[in-house]
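Page 37, continued from 36.
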């Protein structure tokens, strides 16, 4: 494939393709053959290249290992009937990566480097894009500091890498979640809106406690009063109460600006679904669960896609949600998004690019 930027491509001599079991994909375990790499030094991105996926060598004083200057994205590619690779909303991921970079004192990635690296990599590893419904090629662009220096200051050198993994569903069944009122994921003025490693590291301990108690994930509440629902561990979250969709706004700096969230909001608007971008109080959620006005609750995320929620724990009480059918909003929106991503439904919002 011809792109505007010209950079070397070194192909692997040991492809893992033939020995990969595509019928048994565990999320994030299988990595494709190649990666795109660029290095930042002296104020510019240099040494763009594609090479075989391989371990990196790092100095023990590497700044990322100590102070966590690391950001990432998650996006997905699909295959249509014509064997074309379809990338969903890559431009939105590029923009969000740069927003995270700004917050974390890291350099901007020019659109051309991100897109040409991505497209060349996907073209080269196109046989890694799974074809079975529900599966896709998960794409992980990320950037991290490479200075070898243990004083606390922003690094001056960085690495940008894109690698890919063929994946099945992140959640293979509806999830159960626990409303978290003790631990905090993000506070105003913090890094909650950035897709940065530390947010995920800080979430591991509370999420593990919830998992030990039998829940798949947490529903994070605001860090100040713990009374308002913000997002879930690996996804944004939406509720349908009394016919209205409700999801937390993203202007507080505490919530990730999910691209699936944005796509679902756009489809809800296209379909004239009543929608409120506002905080849902935990008490309001509890009242809706008790009175039966909570019709649906679901997570939205690149990895999770649309994850139906079947059980919610609030202050020690479990509430079971009603089972949903194909007419419910979350199922309709999942099938519409799948249709667009697999190239079966017209892409009226210019969300996909074909290779
Ligand atoms: C994604 O949905 O792409 C995510 O980043 C969530 C997760 C796998 C960390």
């Amino acid at each position: 494939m011809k792109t505007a930027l010209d950079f070397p491509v070194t192909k692997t001599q040991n492809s893992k393709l033939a020995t990969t079991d595509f019928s048994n994909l565990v999320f994030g375990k299988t990595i494709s053959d190649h990666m795109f790499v660029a290095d930042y030094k002296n104020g510019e991105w240099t040494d763009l290249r594609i090479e075989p996926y391989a371990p990196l060598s790092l100095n023990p004083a590497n700044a990322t290992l100590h102070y966590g200057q690391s950001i990432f994205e998650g996006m997905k590619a699909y295959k249509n009937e014509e064997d074309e690779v379809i990338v969903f909303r890559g431009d939105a991921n590029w923009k969000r990566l740069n927003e995270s970079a700004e917050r974390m004192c890291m350099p901007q990635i020019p659109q051309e480097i991100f897109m040409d690296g991505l497209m060349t990599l996907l073209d080269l590893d196109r046989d890694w894009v799974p074809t079975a419904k529900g599966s896709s090629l998960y794409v992980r662009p990320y950037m991290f500091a490479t200075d070898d220096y243990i004083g606390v200051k922003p690094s001056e050198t960085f690495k940008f890498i894109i690698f890919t993994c063929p994946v099945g569903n992140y959640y293979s069944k509806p999830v159960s979640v626990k409303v978290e009122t003790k631990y905090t994921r993000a506070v105003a003025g913090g890094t909650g809106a950035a897709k940065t490693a530390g947010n995920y590291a800080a979430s591991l301990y509370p999420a593990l406690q919830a998992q030990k108690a039998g829940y798949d994930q947490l529903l994070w509440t605001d860090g100040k009063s713990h009374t308002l629902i913000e997002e879930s561990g690996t996804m944004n979250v939406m509720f349908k109460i009394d016919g209205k969709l409700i999801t937390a706004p993203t202007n507080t700096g505490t919530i990730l600006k999910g691209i699936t969230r944005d796509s679902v909001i756009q489809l809800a608007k296209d379909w004239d679904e009543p929608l409120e971008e506002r905080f849902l109080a935990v008490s309001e959620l509890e009242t809706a669960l008790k009175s039966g006005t909570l019709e649906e609750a679901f997570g939205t995320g690149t990895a999770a896609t649309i994850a139906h929620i079947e059980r919610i724990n609030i202050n020690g009480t479990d509430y079971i949600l009603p089972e949903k059918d194909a007419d419910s909003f979350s199922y309709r929106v999942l099938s519409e998004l799948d249709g667009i991503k697999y190239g079966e439904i017209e892409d009226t919002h210019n969300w996909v690019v074909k290779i």
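The helical segments are 63-67, 90-103, 111-124, 197-212, 259-270, 282-291, 329-341. Flag for discussion at group meeting. The mean pLDDT is 96.
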